[in-house]
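To whoever picks this up:

The parser on our side crashed when reading a file containing two proteins. I've narrowed it down to the boundary between the first structure block and the second sequence. Both blocks are reproduced below exactly, byte for byte. First block:
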Amino acid sequence: MRTFSLFSSLLAISQLLLLLPSAARGSDTLFKGGTVLSFDNVTESVKVLYNTSVLVSGSQIVSIFPQSQNVTLSPGTEVIPSEGKIMSPGFVDTHRHLWQSAFRTLGSNTSLAEYFFRYSEFTQAGTVFTPDDVYYGQIIGIYESLNAGVTSILDHAHHTWSNATALAGLNASIASGARVWWCYAFHNLTNGYTREDQLADFEYLSQYGPWRNSSTTTLGLAYDPISLDPPPLVQTVVNVAK
């Protein structure tokens, strides 16, 4: 029976993708002989590849091949032994609320309905959480992901209850160095921050926001009430997204 250290497994994934920004400067990195979690497009299921190597060149994962295969490496390629470790190249966590790190361990037995009234943006968070709280919650959430081996994250950023808190979460995402699709959430709030305010802030950030100078953070849009909003408002949001 094959067993793996959880810590070493997570470390391997973290090393794999955290090295990509440095790899973009031109070096190659070979993760040699690990266990790769891949995906089979034919069976639409996870495919486990034992004794497999992953080659990173520049900012791209360029090859996944059996350890036994004889591959010619570029001079200066860094070889990282990965036996006993698990790698999942190209894995993206597609749904996070990174700013909510302060609530970690509090909601394990919470239903979805309870979540909305205890921990979401519709609670006292909109008046209690300062921009600094959002910034540190966001960056801790990202570091938590990195520690778990996840380096590419789609953040459903519903800390957008003011211009300042929205910018704080975006800045934290950029500062982290992780790959983050930071998706500005449009929602119906009760703190006076109207949908018009949100649309104006999003348009400003899309044109002038700090993400434009980032190689790892991308601006996106999150829109939960699309099935509840009147059609003219939905169309407005769709137009902004375009």
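<<boundary where parser fails>>
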Amino acid sequence: MKRLVVGLGSLLVAVLSMGPAAASLDSEAPDDVEFIFARIRYHMTEDAFWEQRRELPWHHDHPLSEEAYLTILKEVSQVHTAPNAYQIVDIDSPDIFKFPYLYICEPGFMDLNEKDTKNLREYLERGGFIFFDDFRGQRHLQNLLYQMKKVFPNRNLVPLTLRHTIFDTFYKMESLDMRPPYGNAPVEFWGMENDNGSLMMVVNYNNDFGELWQWLDEGTASLQDAAESLKFGTNYLMYAFTH
């Protein structure tokens, strides 16, 4: 598209025009892309292997969710990316500093060691941004809170309201009320700020954008739910780029 598109109608058109397979799994992204979606591979709690036997928690919905998100992002924004512009990055690797935006799936199973903690702290202090997604239940929320206290003992994750700038960065969100992909627990949005009052991370609690994007790629998602999740996801990235 030649102009910036911000309307829900245009987003739905982009969703409807998306093909069933957005990219080949063994293809490489163009060298000149501006944005690569970096998914974090982390060390896991012991129960992760028992509760998630079919697929490792950090890997959920990969790569279909990335392909769907990047396909739509390219259509509705001026971000130069590609459907196959995604990469898996180890949490304790210096490679995380190559990416301004990280995606962490199922953080309820994340277990940070000392090296992980130091790496994430430095990444965030240097201006990086993290999007936590795909987890539910008090036990998993408490684990994320505990892990983030390792990174920043004096900072807190707090619930966000609709008044926060992240919900009005590209799309103006009218509500934070979303239908949860699983169960009946209400969807909540959390965040942690740096010393300047800008978010360093955003947290989707009782929510799962990655699943919605995978369902979109498979053609099984509700268009309304998919469009809303893509609007939120676009806002997250634009906020990270501009703050």
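After patching the parser it read the second block fine. The first strand starts at residue 37 and ends at 41. Residues 29-242 form a domain with the Rossmann fold fold (CATH 3.40.50.12140).
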